[in-house]
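I'd like us to work through together how a protein chain folds, taking it slowly. To get us started, please write out a protein record for me. Go ahead whenever you are ready, and we will take it from there:
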Amino acid sequence: MGMTLPSWWQSVILVLLFILVVPLIGQTWIAGILLVIISIYLLYITLSPFLPVALFTLGSLTFLGILPCFVLVTTVALVTTGIVLFQIYPKKPHFYGLFLVSGLLVSSLIMLYMNHVSIVTVLMGVTVAVMLRSILGESAEETMIEILGVAMAMLLIEDLQFHATLIIVLFAMVISFGFGYFAYRFKTADLPGLFSAALIGIILIIFADIRWFILMLCFFMVGSLASRYRIDYKKTLHVEQEKGGARGYLNVFANGIVAAAAAVGYGVFGSPVFVAVYIGSIASATADTIAGEIGVCSSNPRLITNLKRVPKGTNGGITLLGEAAGLGGSALIAGIALVLGIASVPLCIACIIAGFIGTNVDSLIGVLLENRGLTRNAGTNYLSTLIGGVSCAVIYLSMGAFFS
């Protein structure tokens, strides 16, 4: 953290006093001013601007009435819990489990102390705090990012005013972290990937239902199997997935952020358009993964923009086998969605088409943007899933208008 031991303990004591006093104040703007004063004092004793700047920002947002006191206090408590645990317990895999449990306990106590029950907001805050801690390091700069990230995530959920029962929240936690843990143990996800996938899973289950999570799980399973297809041959071409195919947080978010946003939209508004966006984005991600992993093993790839032959593994190269595999992957997701009762037959048709569009858009973006250094693989995947999801919604709505 860039602090001496005395200044570190002073910071913790100040934060603890702040957490205890703020709920008794009763005025949001006073709490904001108090945190601003604390941030200035921390700057004086630590001579590091990063943590004070983060606290100053939160204090200012609270003073302006943008950040609720509950979000402010819980954010500060969660990040402080992580810092204290890190000082006591080394940053190893077991640390994150302890941080998760402690974060939930601390947040629950704050809910009781402030008489403000907001289970979904708390769960999101704790999950984001642990996830960011696994992605970032322990320096003051990274702690600043963690504080602001947790606060903004909690503010978003709090503003949505979306409520779920304790049973659903606990179910979402057990299922999401359970599958995330097994993915980590079987080396299909690294540690940040575990918490990132758990966050996506919690959002899907709470804002939609378990069927949406199952469909996403199918994508990850199919993707993991596809990454192992002829893995030895791919190694000779140097096109195998990094980390043995274990998914990191960038891969998880690139392929799942559109789906998570669609789930939130569906939970808040209930529109079937968000179902189409969700299924279309999953179909695009699946189609692109399968097309890339299988197509790279095919002979005579051609560049999608001019159909000239290119070496195997060239970004933007397509093959007939890859195109067929991508179409099959899109159809697989559509079929599973139909069986699960998420999609109707017309929506499945739109899903298949959108998935095929998404995987080819991925190849186009690879040639036009990624090869020129304007985006990276994660950005390419995000854009392709976004276009695939939107395409599915447009096609589905167009089909409804045509046949009505």
Notes: The radius of gyration is 23 Å. Residues 1-93+136-159 form one domain.
